[in-house]
Amino acid sequence: MADTTSTPTPTTPKAATPDKKGADRGEINKAHLKEISISRKVAAAARAPENTGKLTEVELDPTLVDQIEALASKVETDLGAVHGTRVVKKVMTVQEKTARTVLIGELQTIQTAAKRKFAGDSEKLREAYYIGARLSGKSLDEVLAAVRSVLARLVKGEGNKPPLDTLPGITTAGAIKKLSDAITLYGDYDVAQDKEEKKAFASIEEIESNVIKLAGLRRDLQLAADQAWPWRNQGVTTIRKTFLLPTTRPLKD
């Protein structure tokens, strides 16, 4: 008996593309999740035993369903990994603040010594020690640059040249070593964090490319279903719905 059920025409799903305006690239893009869901539904319809015969008649690529399911799983896994990196980044931001606090703490002893030495006519030299620079409001990168600059004034230069400055109570084995050790520790951390951020963004680019590819594969399958069950034929409304095809017109280009 012909299927004559009257239903609203479903909207033909379009290729999911990332939201370019106002989207946080570290968060999971809802359009990507929607494409995964749509693609899996279409693939499931193609796997239904009652549908495979007609799809074979229209010469559907027998590997297409497997490709869709595999790519959908990969994109889903990659989305989770990127979101996890974003969560780690939030934790690392707290660590950034801790690193900045430690570096500023090691610097303050040296700044106090610099205040003792550079007074009166030489007070201008205090600027080289970022005295009054309010480093607590700066980023970790900026603080690292500042303390490295200070350290460079207190250690020997190339060719064993003497330091630019010597400060009262600031020794190589004491405050200078503590500052140098802190720079090494948090400088390495800063580099590692930068690598993680770049890796996450590279993964996002790959995800966006794969989502577009997934949408293309899903559409190829829908076109085959559109050919196998033309909308003008009797009794195709229900099956076209399972492939997310419009019931009153062919699939648009």
The end-to-end distance, rounded to whole angstroms, is 31 Å
Mean pLDDT: 83
Compute the number of helices: 6
* Global Rg: 31 Å
Range of strand content: under 5%
Give the overall shape, derived from the CA principal axes.
Answer: rod-shaped
Poorly predicted spans: 1-13, 15-26
What profile does the largest beta sheet have?
Answer: none
- Give a count of the beta strands, DSSP E runs of length 2 or more: 0
**SS-derived structural category:** mainly alpha
3D architecture notes:
By secondary structure, the protein is an all-alpha fold. It has one domain (30-242). It is built from 6 helices and no strands. Helix 1 runs antiparallel to helix 3 and helix 4 packs antiparallel against helix 5. It is rod-shaped. The protein starts with 29 loop residues before the first helix and ends in an 11-residue tail after the last helix. The relative contact order is 0.18. Mean pLDDT is 83; it is low at 1-13 and 15-26.
Can you lay out the helices and strands and say which pair or pack?
Layout: H1 30-47, H2 49-57, H3 64-117, H4 140-154, H5 175-228, H6 237-242
Helix pairs in contact: 1-3, 1-5, 3-4, 3-5, 4-5
What are the main properties of this structure?
single chain, 253 residues, mainly alpha, rod-shaped, disordered N terminus
